[in-house]
Amino acid sequence: MERAVEIFVAINMLVIGLSHVFQGSVWVDFFRIMRSHGLAGSFVNGFLSLSFGSIIVGFHWVWEGVIPSIVTCIGIAQVIKSFVAFCLPSVGLYSMRQKKAENPWSYRIGGLLFVGFGILLMLRNLTKSGL
Question: Where are the domains positioned within the chain?
Answer without folding.
Answer: 2-129
